[in-house]
Structure formats: structure tokens, C-alpha cells
Amino acid sequence: MKKKNSNTVSNSTGIRQTAMEQKRERILSGASSLFRRQGIENTSMEQISKEAQIGSATIYRYFPTKPQLVCAVASKYWLELKERYLPLIESDDYNAQTGHEQLKRILNLFITLYEEHTDFLSFLADFDTYIKSSPLPAEQLSGYEDIIFSLKEYAQQAIQKGLADHTLHSLADTEEIYFTVFHCMLSTTQKMALSGNLLPMDSKVSGKRQLLLLTELLLQGLA
User: Fold this and answer.
1) pLDDT of residue 10
2) Which of 124, 138, 170, 213 has the smallest set of CB atoms within 10 Å of its CB?
3) 47-77: b or e for each residue (b if 16 or more CB lie within 10 Å)?
């Protein structure tokens, strides 16, 4: 009996791994598309199977429960945004800015979300509601949280730099500032993007203008 060449085994493993990754991406893409069109709660695993053109049994091998799949889609969204926008806060000109200027650039990303990523904001609101009704164990949410916390690091560094160079000032610690400012920005951005024009009075000041004003007010409060 001939002994298998190590290169042959390695190639075979690589092909199999690639095929598995492609299937996983098809599942995530199909689920994401359905979640956007009809909402998370109204989407079944069977519908996702048809959308991705992958058997139900295969989907359950990758994602044993629907909440796990929902969490994976949420993580994918955050990773895509992170990959797209991190270069803006890792550049040489960003590093040369004051802490105040860095924080302003980060907060301005919420305006970009408002203008270009309504689908993400809509999914995020739906995701929060779904997780409350179908809670995942803390350890299964940890990967999702790790992605968000990796973005938190940039904001906290900007705040710390601002406190050090005296372009920012606060009696609170950096984590308290981060959560307060970013929860305020995210909730307002979602409101403006998803239901900003429910009443006639809502059209008096555009969503973008309100976000710009909120950014300036928050920064002035920390200046």
C-alpha cells in the first residue's frame, strides 16, 4: 500500500477547509438577506436553508441553534464595518491629531452609519430585541462582544489622549465616558435612520444636522 504524500494530504485538507468556509459564508449571507427583508423573528432556519441553497441538516452542523446563527450574522456585520472604517482611525494623520480631534473623527462615523448603513442599524435594533426574547448564554455572546470591545479600545485611547493633552476634560473615568457618549450616539443614530420622520415636526431639522449638533454638544461638554 502506497503511503499518502504529505503534500497531497495537505492539499486535500486545504480544499475541504475552503469548501467549509464557503458554505458558512453562504449560510451567513442567506440569513443576513432574509433578516433584512423580513426580520429575524419572522425568519426560520428552513427559509435560510432555501435561501442559501444548503440542506437544513448542514446548517445545523454549522449553527446548532438559530440564536447562534443570528449572533454570527451580527458579528459578521461588525467585522465588515471594522474592516472598512478602521483605516480612517489608524492613519498617520489620525495619530498626529489631538484627543479631541480623534474623538470627533470617531463620532463622525455615526453620521456615516446614518447615511450609508441603514440596513445595519435596522438589523442591530432587531438583533437587540431578538436576543432579549431568545437569550444566548454569556459565553456564546462573548465573541460578539469581543468584536465590539475591540472598537471600544480606539475610542478610549482617544479619550485618554484628550485627557492627557488637555483637549478633553471630565470628572468621570474613560469607560464611563465611552459608554455614555456611544450609547447616546448609537441610539440617536438609530432613531434618526429608522423612525426620524414619523411626525411633521421631525422634518424641521434633518437627521444628519441633529447628529452633527449632538456630536458638537458632546465634545463641547468634554472640552
Assistant:
1) 63
2) 138
3) ebbebbebeeeebeebbeebbebbbbbbbbb
Give the model confidence (pLDDT) of 97-144 as tens digits.
999 999 999 999 999 999 999 999 999 999 999 988 887 777 778 888
The structural domain count of the chain equals 2
Q: Are residues 122 and 207 in the same domain?
A: yes
Of residues 72 and 201, more confidently modeled? 72
Distance CA 111, CA 85 (A): 13
Provide the residue range defining the domain that includes 93.
66-222
Closest CA to 112 of 74, 81, 153: 81
**Confidence (pTM):** 0.84
* Cell numbers describing residue 192: 434618526
Which of 64, 98, 118 delimits the end of a domain?
Answer: 64
Cell 449553527 found at: 63
The pLDDT of residue 16 is 79
Examine the domain organization and report whether 121 and 172 are in the same domain.
yes
> What are the percentages of helix, strand and coil residues in the chain, rounded to 5?
80, 0, 20
The answer on 55 and 115 residing in a single domain is no
Per DSSP, 206 falls in state -
Q: Do residues 85 and 59 make contact, with C-beta atoms less than 8 angstroms apart?
A: no
- Tell me the three state secondary structure of residue 82: helix
- Please, which residues have CB within 8 angstroms of residue 150's CB and are 6 or more apart in sequence? 82
